[in-house]
Structures are given as structure tokens and as C-alpha cells.
Amino acid sequence: MQTEHGDLYDCVDFYEQPAFDYPLLQNHAFRYEVAVVRTKFSGNKKYDGGGMNITIEGPKAKFSQYSMGQMKVLNGPDYIQVGWMVNPTLYGDNRARFFVYHKASH
Question: What InterPro entries does this protein map onto (predicted)?
């Protein structure tokens, strides 16, 4: 699929992904589950959290520069980060792009 700005997003059928050519994944049964853990309110426990609102007002960056804003949430070695980036070297223009990146140990 191509956006009106020329960005390409490719979709691959789940069972045709190159990773499944790996011998240990041959004939493997996959379970589709959403990774969500629900918490229940308890008056004696403290829950921390995070959030952000971002507004992007057309930032400009020279070809050798980039501009970005992000939020990163860590739990030991695992993390997820979200934000936006303008990177002419990477994308060839000054449009802001949203990104999500994560690392999970398991």
C-alpha cells in the first residue's frame, strides 16, 4: 500500500513470513492472543503510569540533521517508546512520522 505522500507499507500473509522458513518453526501452531494484563484497583497499592500529548507544528531539519520527540517506558530490560521524527536523511523530506519501537525479553 502506498500513501498519498509516497510512503510504502508492505503486508505479508501471516503464514508466508520468511521467519517461518526457519526449521524449528516448521509446522508450528501459533496462538493469537493480545498481550494485555488488566489491573484491579486496590486502595493500598500505588500504580504509576505515563502519558503524553504531542503537537507537531511543521518542524524543519537540514539534510544532515533530524528532529524528534519521544516517550520511553522501561520495565527492567524491556521498553516501549513512541514519538515522532523528522529525518530528511532517512525519509528524504521534512514530513513528521510517528513511530513505535519496543524491546521485549520474552
Answer: Glutamic_endopeptidase (IPR053168), Neprosin (IPR004314), Neprosin_propep (IPR025521)
pLDDT tens per residue, range 21-47:
878 777 777 776 766 666 677 777 776
Q: What is the dihedral of CA 70, 74, 80, 82, to 10 degrees?
A: -10
Q: Are 58 and 67 in contact (CB under 8 A)?
A: no
* Residue 3 located in a structural domain: no
pLDDT digits (tens, 9 = 90+) for 36-85: 666 677 777 776 666 777 777 778 888 889 998 888 888 888 889 999 99
The answer to the question of residue 75 being in a domain is yes
Is 102 in contact with 73 (CB distance < 8 Å)? no
CA-nearest of 73, 75, 76 to 52 is 73
What's the structural domain count of the chain?
A: 1
In what order do the strands lie in the sheet containing 78-86? 67-75, 78-86, 97-103
